[in-house]
């Protein structure tokens, strides 16, 4: 079955420390990969995406993710987090089956502490 | 542009009642989606639409119905509310065209928090 796994449900980290949020997927077809962020009581916002080309993609607020096809992973990293990064982060994929709908992981809550 | 709007923001229903969750987008997107988010879980697809007049089931369609009479609107109907439908509901839209534009980002509404008692 096609699925997305986020290995950590919660990640506590101190401000200015680096962080990695892990995401693995299983699919027998081509995938297109996304990270969404959800701030408290808000909808989801796109953080970054991988469709093709360079396997390292970056967001405007310092996050980056690397597509690793051999390990079927798309981990999200940031070298130095801020309090304002506290949120829920969802990894999601569109599998090339024609539906175009996202399959989501269960989410990782990033808690940045001062 | 308002993007994707949803009404209401909150609602409490009694078991067996019915209601319609409204969703409107003003970006002329062809694809629209309904997801539900349960605590500690990712979003699950309920229904989706590829254009006006065309809808299809997602992963968890039981207990719900949808219609898409216009490009802008994609209402979700709950006919006989059950406690298992207590959740946060998100509507989303995207434009899907040829090539890589088939996989454009989805834009999400702010959500409707529904409680069934």
Tag the structure with descriptive keywords.
heterodimer, A: 114 residues, mainly beta, 6-stranded mixed β-sheet, 4-stranded antiparallel β-sheet, 12 strands, 53% strand, B: 117 residues, 7-stranded mixed β-sheet, globular
Overall description:
The complex is a heterodimer of chains A (114) and B (117). Chain A has 114 residues and is an all-beta fold. Chain A has no helices and twelve strands. Chain A is 0% helix and 53% strand. The termini of chain A are far apart. In chain A, 39% of the residues are buried. The mean pLDDT of chain B is 92. Classes of the chains: A mainly beta (114), B mainly beta (117).
Spatial separation of the terminal alpha carbons of chain A? 41 Å
Shape of chain A: globular
Structural class of chain B: mainly beta
Low-confidence stretches of chain A: none
Structural class of chain A: mainly beta
Beta strand count of chain B: 11
Residue-averaged pLDDT of chain A: 90
Tell how many strands the DSSP assignment of chain A holds. 12
Give the H and E element order of chain A: EEEEEEEEEEEE
Reading the helices and strands of chain B in chain order gives: EEEEEEEEEEE
How big a fraction of the residues of chain A is strand? over 45%
Shape of chain B: globular
The largest β sheet of chain B comes out as: 7 strands, mixed
Q: Helix tally of chain B?
A: 0
Layout of secondary structure:
The complex is a heterodimer of chains A (114) and B (117).
Chain A lengths: L2 E3 L4 E5 L4 E3 L2 E3 L4 E8 L5 E7 L5 E3 L5 E5 L4 E6 L8 E9 L7 E2 L3 E6 L1
Parallel strand pairs in A: 2-12
Antiparallel strand pairs in A: 1-4, 3-9, 5-6, 5-10, 7-8, 8-9, 10-11, 10-12
Chain B lengths: L3 E4 L2 E4 L5 E7 L5 E7 L5 E9 L2 E4 L6 E3 L9 E3 L8 E8 L12 E2 L3 E5 L1
Parallel strand pairs in B: 2-11
Antiparallel strand pairs in B: 1-3, 3-8, 4-5, 4-9, 5-6, 7-8, 9-10, 9-11
């Amino acid at each position: 079955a096609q699925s997305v796994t986020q290995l950590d449900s919660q990640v506590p980290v101190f401000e200015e420390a680096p962080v990695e949020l892990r995401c693995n997927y299983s699919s027998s077809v081509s995938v297109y990969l996304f990270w969404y962020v959800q701030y408290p009581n808000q909808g989801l916002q796109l953080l970054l995406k991988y469709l093709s080309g360079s396997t390292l993609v970056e967001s405007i607020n310092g996050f980056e993710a690397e597509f690793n096809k051999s390990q079927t992973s798309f981990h999200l990293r940031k070298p130095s987090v801020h309090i304002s990064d506290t949120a829920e982060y969802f990894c999601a994929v569109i599998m090339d089956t024609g539906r175009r709908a996202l399959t989501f992981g269960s989410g990782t809550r990033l808690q940045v502490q001062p | 542009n308002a993007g994707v709007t949803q009404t209401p923001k909150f609602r409490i229903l009694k078991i067996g009642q019915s209601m319609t969750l409204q969703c409107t987008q003003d970006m002329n997107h062809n694809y629209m989606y309904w997801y539900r988010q349960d605590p500690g879980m990712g979003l699950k697809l309920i229904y989706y639409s590829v254009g006006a007049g065309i809808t299809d089931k997602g992963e968890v369609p039981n207990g719900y119905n949808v219609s898409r009479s216009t490009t802008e609107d994609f209402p979700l109907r709950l006919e006989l509310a059950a406690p298992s439908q207590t959740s946060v509901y998100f509507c989303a839209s995207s434009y899907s065209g040829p090539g890589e534009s088939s996989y454009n980002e989805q834009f999400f509404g702010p959500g409707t928090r529904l409680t069934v008692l």
